[in-house]
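Exercise 3.2. Students should predict the tertiary structure of the chain below and write it as C-alpha coordinates, then compare their answer with the key that follows.

Predict this chain's 3D structure.
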Amino acid sequence: MARRRFFVDEVRRGEAEVAGEEAEHLTRVLRVENGQQYEICDGARLYLAEIVEARKRSVRFRIVEELPVAEPTIRIALLMSLIKFERFEWMVEKATELGVETIVPVQAERSDKGLELAARKRVDRWRKIARAAGQQSHRMHLPEISVPVGLARALVWEGRRIYLEEAPGCPLLLKAVSDPKAGEAVAILVGPEGGWTDRERSQLVAASWAPVSLGPQILRAETAAIAAVAVLSHAWLIE
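Answer key:
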Protein backbone atom coordinates (compact mmCIF):
# COMPACT_ATOMS: atom_id res chain seq x y z
CA MET A 1 0.00 0.00 0.00
CA ALA A 2 1.36 3.43 -0.95
CA ARG A 3 2.36 5.73 1.87
CA ARG A 4 0.37 8.91 2.40
CA ARG A 5 2.06 12.09 1.24
CA PHE A 6 1.90 15.51 2.88
CA PHE A 7 3.10 18.92 1.74
CA VAL A 8 5.26 21.05 4.02
CA ASP A 9 6.36 24.65 3.65
CA GLU A 10 10.04 23.85 4.15
CA VAL A 11 12.55 21.31 5.37
CA ARG A 12 15.05 22.81 7.77
CA ARG A 13 17.91 21.08 9.58
CA GLY A 14 16.46 17.70 8.73
CA GLU A 15 13.00 18.45 10.13
CA ALA A 16 9.66 19.74 8.86
CA GLU A 17 6.32 20.69 10.36
CA VAL A 18 2.66 20.50 9.42
CA ALA A 19 0.65 23.03 11.44
CA GLY A 20 -2.85 24.41 11.91
CA GLU A 21 -5.88 22.76 10.32
CA GLU A 22 -3.76 20.22 8.46
CA ALA A 23 -2.14 19.12 11.71
CA GLU A 24 -5.58 18.74 13.28
CA HIS A 25 -6.61 16.52 10.37
CA LEU A 26 -3.52 14.35 10.84
CA THR A 27 -4.02 13.93 14.57
CA ARG A 28 -7.82 13.86 14.84
CA VAL A 29 -8.85 12.08 11.64
CA LEU A 30 -5.81 10.04 10.59
CA ARG A 31 -4.66 9.55 14.20
CA VAL A 32 -0.97 9.71 13.32
CA GLU A 33 1.51 8.70 16.02
CA ASN A 34 5.20 9.12 16.81
CA GLY A 35 7.36 6.71 14.85
CA GLN A 36 5.06 6.39 11.85
CA GLN A 37 6.63 7.07 8.46
CA TYR A 38 5.14 9.10 5.61
CA GLU A 39 6.27 10.90 2.49
CA ILE A 40 6.61 14.66 2.70
CA CYS A 41 7.24 17.13 -0.10
CA ASP A 42 8.39 20.75 0.00
CA GLY A 43 7.63 21.40 -3.67
CA ALA A 44 11.25 20.81 -4.68
CA ARG A 45 12.22 17.47 -3.11
CA LEU A 46 10.51 14.34 -1.85
CA TYR A 47 11.43 12.66 1.43
CA LEU A 48 10.64 9.69 3.59
CA ALA A 49 10.04 11.12 7.06
CA GLU A 50 9.19 9.89 10.53
CA ILE A 51 6.86 11.62 12.98
CA VAL A 52 8.71 12.72 16.11
CA GLU A 53 5.92 14.76 17.71
CA ALA A 54 2.16 14.76 17.05
CA ARG A 55 0.15 17.48 18.76
CA LYS A 56 -3.27 18.93 17.93
CA ARG A 57 -1.93 21.96 16.03
CA SER A 58 1.55 20.78 15.12
CA VAL A 59 3.01 17.57 13.69
CA ARG A 60 6.81 17.45 13.38
CA PHE A 61 8.72 15.14 11.04
CA ARG A 62 12.34 14.00 10.97
CA ILE A 63 13.81 13.27 7.54
CA VAL A 64 14.85 9.65 7.06
CA GLU A 65 16.00 9.85 3.43
CA GLU A 66 15.42 11.69 0.17
CA LEU A 67 13.35 9.78 -2.40
CA PRO A 68 13.75 9.73 -6.20
CA VAL A 69 11.31 11.74 -8.32
CA ALA A 70 10.16 10.99 -11.87
CA GLU A 71 10.10 13.87 -14.34
CA PRO A 72 6.64 14.70 -15.81
CA THR A 73 6.01 13.43 -19.32
CA ILE A 74 3.91 16.50 -20.18
CA ARG A 75 3.42 19.96 -18.72
CA ILE A 76 -0.22 20.93 -19.09
CA ALA A 77 -1.58 24.44 -18.66
CA LEU A 78 -5.38 24.38 -18.37
CA LEU A 79 -6.94 27.71 -19.28
CA MET A 80 -10.50 27.34 -18.06
CA SER A 81 -13.31 29.78 -18.73
CA LEU A 82 -15.12 30.80 -15.57
CA ILE A 83 -18.20 28.72 -14.79
CA LYS A 84 -20.34 28.26 -11.67
CA PHE A 85 -18.00 27.94 -8.73
CA GLU A 86 -19.08 24.50 -7.46
CA ARG A 87 -18.29 23.11 -10.92
CA PHE A 88 -15.04 25.06 -11.18
CA GLU A 89 -13.94 23.65 -7.82
CA TRP A 90 -14.65 20.11 -8.98
CA MET A 91 -12.56 20.84 -12.07
CA VAL A 92 -9.66 22.15 -9.93
CA GLU A 93 -9.68 18.98 -7.83
CA LYS A 94 -9.72 16.58 -10.78
CA ALA A 95 -7.23 18.57 -12.86
CA THR A 96 -4.83 18.48 -9.91
CA GLU A 97 -5.24 14.72 -9.59
CA LEU A 98 -4.42 14.36 -13.30
CA GLY A 99 -1.19 16.34 -12.98
CA VAL A 100 -2.04 19.72 -14.52
CA GLU A 101 0.84 22.14 -13.94
CA THR A 102 -1.02 25.46 -14.27
CA ILE A 103 -4.68 26.48 -13.99
CA VAL A 104 -5.72 29.87 -15.35
CA PRO A 105 -9.32 31.08 -14.84
CA VAL A 106 -10.44 32.99 -17.96
CA GLN A 107 -13.27 35.51 -18.25
CA ALA A 108 -14.93 34.67 -21.58
CA GLU A 109 -17.68 36.69 -23.19
CA ARG A 110 -20.30 34.10 -22.25
CA SER A 111 -19.04 33.58 -18.70
CA ASP A 112 -21.67 34.73 -16.22
CA LYS A 113 -21.34 38.42 -15.47
CA GLY A 114 -19.69 39.18 -12.16
CA LEU A 115 -17.84 35.88 -11.94
CA GLU A 116 -14.42 37.43 -12.53
CA LEU A 117 -14.66 39.79 -9.56
CA ALA A 118 -16.05 37.09 -7.28
CA ALA A 119 -13.46 34.60 -8.50
CA ARG A 120 -10.61 36.75 -7.23
CA LYS A 121 -11.86 36.05 -3.72
CA ARG A 122 -11.94 32.30 -4.43
CA VAL A 123 -8.36 31.76 -5.54
CA ASP A 124 -7.12 30.89 -2.04
CA ARG A 125 -9.93 28.36 -1.66
CA TRP A 126 -9.05 26.80 -5.02
CA ARG A 127 -5.42 26.51 -3.91
CA LYS A 128 -6.49 24.69 -0.74
CA ILE A 129 -8.57 22.29 -2.83
CA ALA A 130 -5.56 21.69 -5.07
CA ARG A 131 -3.31 21.09 -2.06
CA ALA A 132 -5.63 18.40 -0.68
CA ALA A 133 -6.00 16.78 -4.12
CA GLY A 134 -2.24 16.92 -4.66
CA GLN A 135 -1.57 15.07 -1.42
CA GLN A 136 -4.19 12.44 -2.22
CA SER A 137 -2.83 11.85 -5.73
CA HIS A 138 0.86 11.94 -4.70
CA ARG A 139 1.74 15.06 -6.65
CA MET A 140 5.29 16.32 -6.46
CA HIS A 141 4.42 19.91 -7.34
CA LEU A 142 1.12 21.65 -6.73
CA PRO A 143 -0.47 23.39 -9.71
CA GLU A 144 -0.07 27.11 -9.96
CA ILE A 145 -3.53 28.72 -9.88
CA SER A 146 -3.57 32.29 -11.12
CA VAL A 147 -6.04 35.11 -10.62
CA PRO A 148 -8.65 35.40 -13.39
CA VAL A 149 -7.58 37.00 -16.67
CA GLY A 150 -9.31 38.14 -19.83
CA LEU A 151 -9.11 36.09 -23.02
CA ALA A 152 -6.61 38.41 -24.72
CA ARG A 153 -4.11 37.93 -21.91
CA ALA A 154 -4.75 34.20 -21.74
CA LEU A 155 -3.84 33.76 -25.39
CA VAL A 156 -0.24 34.85 -24.83
CA TRP A 157 1.19 31.42 -24.09
CA GLU A 158 4.29 29.53 -25.14
CA GLY A 159 4.41 25.94 -26.34
CA ARG A 160 1.74 23.94 -28.14
CA ARG A 161 -1.61 25.77 -27.96
CA ILE A 162 -4.99 24.14 -28.56
CA TYR A 163 -8.57 25.02 -27.73
CA LEU A 164 -11.74 22.97 -27.54
CA GLU A 165 -14.26 23.76 -30.27
CA GLU A 166 -17.83 22.51 -30.71
CA ALA A 167 -18.11 23.57 -34.37
CA PRO A 168 -17.97 20.62 -36.82
CA GLY A 169 -14.92 19.86 -38.90
CA CYS A 170 -12.23 20.14 -36.20
CA PRO A 171 -9.73 17.29 -35.78
CA LEU A 172 -10.12 15.03 -32.77
CA LEU A 173 -7.82 15.97 -29.92
CA LEU A 174 -6.02 12.63 -29.86
CA LYS A 175 -5.20 12.86 -33.59
CA ALA A 176 -4.13 16.50 -33.26
CA VAL A 177 -1.42 15.53 -30.74
CA SER A 178 -0.13 12.44 -32.52
CA ASP A 179 3.51 13.54 -32.24
CA PRO A 180 4.10 14.07 -28.49
CA LYS A 181 7.55 15.01 -27.21
CA ALA A 182 8.65 14.12 -23.69
CA GLY A 183 8.37 17.02 -21.26
CA GLU A 184 6.53 19.19 -23.78
CA ALA A 185 4.44 22.17 -22.64
CA VAL A 186 0.84 22.10 -23.87
CA ALA A 187 -1.84 24.71 -23.20
CA ILE A 188 -5.48 23.67 -23.53
CA LEU A 189 -8.19 26.36 -23.53
CA VAL A 190 -11.78 25.46 -22.62
CA GLY A 191 -14.76 27.69 -23.35
CA PRO A 192 -17.70 28.55 -21.07
CA GLU A 193 -21.24 27.22 -21.11
CA GLY A 194 -22.66 28.42 -24.42
CA GLY A 195 -19.33 28.16 -26.21
CA TRP A 196 -17.16 30.73 -27.95
CA THR A 197 -18.45 33.82 -29.71
CA ASP A 198 -17.41 34.58 -33.29
CA ARG A 199 -15.24 37.42 -32.04
CA GLU A 200 -13.42 35.10 -29.65
CA ARG A 201 -12.90 32.56 -32.43
CA SER A 202 -11.28 35.28 -34.52
CA GLN A 203 -8.96 36.12 -31.62
CA LEU A 204 -8.01 32.47 -31.19
CA VAL A 205 -7.21 31.98 -34.87
CA ALA A 206 -5.21 35.22 -35.00
CA ALA A 207 -3.15 34.06 -32.02
CA SER A 208 -2.41 30.71 -33.72
CA TRP A 209 -4.42 28.52 -31.35
CA ALA A 210 -5.48 25.25 -33.00
CA PRO A 211 -9.12 24.09 -32.66
CA VAL A 212 -9.70 20.48 -31.58
CA SER A 213 -12.75 18.36 -30.81
CA LEU A 214 -13.63 15.72 -28.21
CA GLY A 215 -16.27 14.21 -30.48
CA PRO A 216 -19.95 14.80 -31.32
CA GLN A 217 -21.26 14.91 -27.76
CA ILE A 218 -21.83 18.31 -26.15
CA LEU A 219 -20.14 18.15 -22.76
CA ARG A 220 -20.38 20.44 -19.77
CA ALA A 221 -17.41 22.76 -19.63
CA GLU A 222 -15.87 21.12 -16.57
CA THR A 223 -16.37 17.63 -18.06
CA ALA A 224 -14.76 18.71 -21.32
CA ALA A 225 -11.77 20.13 -19.44
CA ILE A 226 -11.08 16.93 -17.53
CA ALA A 227 -11.68 14.74 -20.59
CA ALA A 228 -9.18 16.83 -22.57
CA VAL A 229 -6.55 16.65 -19.83
CA ALA A 230 -7.01 12.87 -19.58
CA VAL A 231 -6.56 12.47 -23.34
CA LEU A 232 -3.41 14.60 -23.32
CA SER A 233 -1.93 12.78 -20.33
CA HIS A 234 -2.55 9.40 -21.93
CA ALA A 235 -1.09 10.48 -25.26
CA TRP A 236 2.18 11.47 -23.57
CA LEU A 237 2.31 8.42 -21.35
CA ILE A 238 2.35 6.11 -24.37
CA GLU A 239 4.62 8.23 -26.57
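Discussion points: The chain has two domains: 5-67, 74-237. The CA atoms of residues 114 and 233 lie 33 Å apart.
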